[in-house]
Structure formats: C-alpha cells, structure tokens
C-alpha cells in the first residue's frame, strides 16, 4: 500500500505537497467569535494567492465539522491559486457548537460521520477530508474531548487518517497522548499536536515527542501567549534533543482581521517572518525539511 496525502483534488504522493502551512484556516465560523467569521471565498482566494507569492505551495485547513468549512469551495480555490489544500473532518470543543447539534450527534455515531467524510466526502461536495481534527481542554480532557477523541481513534483505525489536536493554550499534551495512543492504540506518528508554542514547557514537549507524535508550532503569538521570540529557542532545543524530525509549522489564521489581505499577518507571515528567524536558529536545511518533507509525512496515510 502506498502512502498518500488526501487533498481536495485527490490523493498525491507526500513529496508532491511542497512548502506547506501545516495548520491554518481559510473558512471558520464559531459562536465564540461573533462577527469575525472567515466566510469570504474572494478573501480566501486572495490570501492563498499571497501565500503562493511568498513561496507557499500547500495549506492544511484544520476547520472541522460544523464550523463553516465550505468544503465545496475548496477545489476551485486550489485550482485557481495553484495551492494544494487538505480538508478536515472532526470536532472542536463543545463551546463552538449548538447544544441541539451536539445532542443529535451523540445519538448518530460520531466515528461513522468522520469515516464517511474521509472516505465518501463532506456532505454533497464530494471533497474527501484528509485528517481528523479534535481538541483538548485547558490542562485536562473533559467528557466532550474524550468522546470526540475516542471517535477520532475509531475513525483512524478504520481509515488510517492522521489525527490533529488543538491543545488549549498549548496544554494537556500528555493527557491527549495517554488517551489516543495509550488507551485507544493510535500510533504516535499518526498524531499531530497543535499550539505547543503557546505553552513552551520543554520537558512536556520532549516527553510528547518521545511518543513519536508530530509537534506543531503554529500561529503568530497573541499578547497573552508565549511570544514569538521564544519559539526558535524551543524548536532548537527539540532538535538538539534528537526530535528535529518531528516538527511542523503553521499560521492558524482564525479570524477575518488576521488575514494578510485584511491587514493582519495571515498565511504569508509563516514564510515572510517566521522562516528567517528559524533559519538562523536551526539552519536552512532543517527548516526546509520542516516546511516540505515533514508535512508530507505527517499528513500522509495508508488509506483503507
């Protein structure tokens, strides 16, 4: 069986992905972010064009089920901009959903929904998801997180799909791995942990990396989070500890004002500002692998 990355235009070989933003959003809607929705196809097209102009070739969109993915728009955006796109299934924290929807899904089989979107396609769009996105809580896993992660593990075993995890403010990594890998038997290299830059605990990061999982450093820091200047030091320490082959980078644009075409850092920031800082800290060769080879390996699967 040949591993492939499942893009919105079909499966491709991992090495075809190119320079990749391994965690971002073209479309996203949540009651937690009223009035800040990413819901404009023209703006999404412009953002992808700006990313392409900066040297980008692929974007993995982590927007899961029920949060305004606009999956039907993704193939045309990929064709017109030349940027490869990967769509997600999965489910975020309960706060991002209507209680009625959550109630219906609890009785409908969440793992089956994920499997259907990975194999048959999202709704009537025909676009097959290429990863499962779930989320933990702040330093803990509540009942909702355990439910969604258990369903994600079942869907992984049924399809081979990788599982990407939103760590709330970067915390709870070891609890996530205990559940997914320890209790549910997901191989470590099929798990991507996001937002580790927001809680830069070097001990936890090394312990997590020892599981074989992927460590994603994603998004320009906000004022209340660990600031960007600490990230090069942190990833350098991981590389020195022997985990340089487990690293990913992303932009995580979640509100309209954060897009580069709307005056924010947006997707190009990853290549325009983050990459030069990491080149100086890690060397350009390793950063090239983090942006190209690593996403291809992390998001490829032996699809069942």
TrEMBL record:
The modification N6-carboxylysine is found at residue 133. Zn(2+) 2 binds at residues 133, 166, 195. Its cofactor is a divalent metal cation. Zn(2+) 1 binds at residues 23, 25, 133, 252. InterPro entries: Metal_Hydrolase (IPR032466), Phosphotriesterase (IPR001559). Binds 2 divalent metal cations per subunit. One of its GO terms (molecular function) is hydrolase activity. The keyword Hydrolase applies. Keywords: Hydrolase, Metal-binding. It comes from the Bacteria. Gene3D superfamilies: Metal-dependent hydrolases. Belongs to the metallo-dependent hydrolases superfamily. Phosphotriesterase family. This is Phosphotriesterase.
